[in-house]
Design brief:
Structural class: alpha/beta
Helix content: 40-55%
Bound molecules: S-adenosylmethionine
Radius of gyration: 23 Å
Largest sheet: 7 strands, mixed
Strand order of the largest sheet: 3-2-1-4-5-7-6
Distance between the termini: 50 Å
Length: 362
């Protein structure tokens, strides 16, 4: 049987996104389209989905799996360009944005991608094969100190120096199994259930795909795209990702981010998010039994808070989204009315004209 990717925390995701009929959603990590299909089911009738994945194969698979749905736009791109993608496809503002980070079971099962140390394959690990740098490039060109730093930082590996030393002694390394064997030897063999190369492989994958930098950048962009009461939902699979998500949401939920020693606020920061779940959501016992790969998953969710200015910007953006003006699309009407009234009360005549030309149908 062909491998499938079982969406993790599926029900919890729909609940956290508060998926509603007619809503518009972005799935930034489409994978096999599992979460996307759930979102489309729950947003029917009238729901719209923009799905993004850096891996062209994932987009192809999702296209097949989502063929029965009409209102979908699937894009092979990196979510580091989230805002540009959404503006290109006129997909602003949105009711919810999902990030289900990391790699899918499908990618892990494609041995030639080099994500797994279980099968012999080139040391690749790129989500997008058009990208230049592979894991082999890093392993064979970085200095011992750079490798040790990378493995410690992104793998949280206490034996990083020993591993880096061994890699440098034995390179060039070209395959996953070669690297796994070297790491195993460097740490003095296997202990426990987890393979000793797990953390080194994680570190290389994070570095090859710039995963942490891309996540930080995309989270900031995501907030700008959320409409009134829009939800941001992130599922992460290791502590480095989760730390970024937790810190980001907590900071964005504060009205002031000055250091505690500052006598009066000088940052001018205002909260743009409200935490939906103060505690992280993890898989149930039942899900862990059915899908052991879900064991490290952590879901965090937050809701957009909108200021008067952002209200106005939002309305302007609504005017630029043809699907929204054509069918009212899921934004609750009382809210839309309230927003329009606020905007018409506060903007100049010139801007009002622009809004009307935008053709908002009420
Ligand atoms: C855990 S899988 C998603 C599975 C999907 N939610 C499902 O239910 O089938 C993560 C996906 O995110 C993609 N991905 C990771 N980083 C990305 C990035 N920066 N931009 C776009 N896609 C990315 C990977 O290629 C992978 O397909």
């Amino acid at each position: 049987m062909a491998p499938v990717h079982i969406p993790v925390l599926a029900e919890e995701t729909i609940k956290a996104l508060a998926v509603q009929p007619g809503g518009r959603y972005i799935d930034c990590t489409l994978g096999g389209g599992g979460h996307a299909a759930n979102i489309l089911e729950h947003s029917s009738p009238g729901g719209q989905l923009l799905g993004i994945d850096a891996d062209p194969k994932a987009v192809e698979t999702a296209m097949q799996n989502l063929a029965r749905y009409d209102s979908i736009t699937l894009v092979n791109a990196n979510f580091v360009n989230l805002e540009a993608i959404c503006y290109k496809y006129d997909f602003v503002p949105v009711h919810g944005i999902l990030f289900d980070l990391g790699l899918s079971s499908l990618q892990l099962a494609e041995s030639e991608r080099g994500f797994s140390f279980q099968q012999k394959a080139p040391l690749d690990m790129r989500f997008n094969p058009d990208q230049e740098q592979t894991a082999a490039d890093i392993v064979n060109s970085y200095s011992e100190a750079e490798l040790a730093r990378l493995i410690k930082l992104y793998g949280e590996e206490i034996y990083s120096r020993a591993i880096a030393r061994r890699i440098v002694q034995e390179r060039p390394l070209n395959t996953t199994t070669e690297l796994a064997r070297i790491v195993e030897r460097a740490v003095g063999g296997r202990r426990g259930k987890i393979h000793p190369a797990t953390k080194t492989f994680q570190a290389l994958r994070i570095a090859v795909n710039h995963e942490l930098e891309n996540l930080e950048s995309a989270l900031k962009q995501a907030v700008n795209l959320l409409g009134y009461e829009g939800k941001l939902v992130v599922i992460s699979y290791h502590s480095l990702e989760d730390r970024i998500v937790k810190h980001f949401m907590q900071q964005e939920a504060k009205d002031c981010i000055c250091p505690p020693t500052t006598p009066t606020c000088v940052c001018g920061h205002t909260a743009r998010l409200k935490l939906i779940n103060k505690r992280v959501i993890t898989p149930s016992e039942e899900e862990l039994k059915d899908n052991p790969r879900s064991r490290s998953a952590k879901l965090r969710a937050a809701e957009r808070i909108i200021t008067e200015d952002e209200h106005y910007n939002l309305v302007e953006r609504l005017g630029s989204a043809p699907e929204v003006k054509a069918n009212g699309n899921g934004w609750r009407r009382p809210t839309l009315l309230k927003m329009l009234r606020a905007a018409f009360d506060t903007v100049s005549t010139g801007s009002n004209t622009a809004l009307r030309q935008g053709g908002l149908n009420m």
